Amino acid sequence: MHSVRHIRLRRRSNFMLFEPNQLTIQYIGQVGVILRKNDVAIAIDPYLTNSVDQLSGFPEGFWARRYAPPMQPETLTDLDLVLCTHDHMDHMDPGTLRTIADASPGCRFGAPKVCLPALEALGIAPDRLQALGVHEAWQFADQLRIHPIPAWHEARVQDEEGWDHYLGYVLQWDGLCLYHAGDTLLTEGLVEALSGFSIDVGFLPINGRDMFRNRLGVVGNMNAMEAADLAAYLRFDTVVPVHFDLYPNNSEGISPFVDRLYQKHPGQKFHIFQPGETLLYGKAK
Q: Residue 104 in contact with residue 79, Cβ under 8 Å?
């Protein structure tokens, strides 16, 4: 990790000085981000407790956060929307979501249909919830359209009505296109689902998977090289690696991702966030 600061300074992508209505991106750990643009604030998969550290059935110390949450969820008083990609605790954390629901009383919550009963059980009113599925995009605001994208974590799981249990999201937002993958493998189906979008910023998990983690019930994702290759293949403007820095026992580190980009995709822009860091993004004209 000693080279991260050097990389960040050299590979600034399109993060630049503030302009009106510019997108701000704040990284809050694991895969969580807060996005703000045009007076709309969105959190995706916010995880701001140590709930995962308390999970039973794992070797002692297997789950241990490397750093404290960069903010407290009660400080998030201006959120308009929270998107959850699936019901794993580091993506749909009860403690975080319950507190956000109280702190931002006008906030709505979108998630796969299977997640809605658990969100209601947290005390979030049904009229604040939106079931999301790949069959229909959701027009959330005048200039924001949300496209649910299927995810393979490690398989694609659907109910009998075709509602996916795992999702990613493409946000078409006032001239920008963002993709948050949630947790997923790289598959032909994912490439097909994304091929119709020109993605400006993509957040991709890079923690990979292996037999020993599978034995413990840890479900995996694409690895660093696959994420780098996907971003280059689909011509993301900027790729952001996530799901690598919080839990060392469920990570393959950052070096393989950076090496792959430098060796195979030298023109691909990227940014490696530090916890709590906020950056401004604007498309080059």
A: yes
State the Cα–Cα distance between residues 110 and 120, nearest whole angstrom: 12
List the domain boundaries for the chain: 4-274
pLDDT tens per residue across span 199-231:
999 999 999 999 999 999 999 999 999 999 999
> What are the pLDDT digits (tens) for 125-137?
999 999 999 999 9
- What topology does CATH give the domain 4-274? Metallo-beta-lactamase; Chain A (3.60.15)
DSSP string, the chain: -TTHHHHHHH--TTB-S--TT-EEEEEEETTEEEEEETTEEEEES---S-GGGG-SSS-TTSS--SS--SS-GGG----SEEE-SSSSTTTS-HHHHHHHHHHSTT-EEEEEGGGHHHHHHTT--GGGEEEEBTTB-EEEETTEEEEEEE--SSS--B-TT--BSSEEEEEEETTEEEEE--S----HHHHHHHTT---SEEEEE-B---HHHHHTT-----BHHHHHHHHHHTT-SEEEEESSSS-GGG---SHHHHHHHHHH-TT-EE--PPTT-EEEE----
Task: Give the predicted TM-score (pTM) of the model.
Answer: 0.92
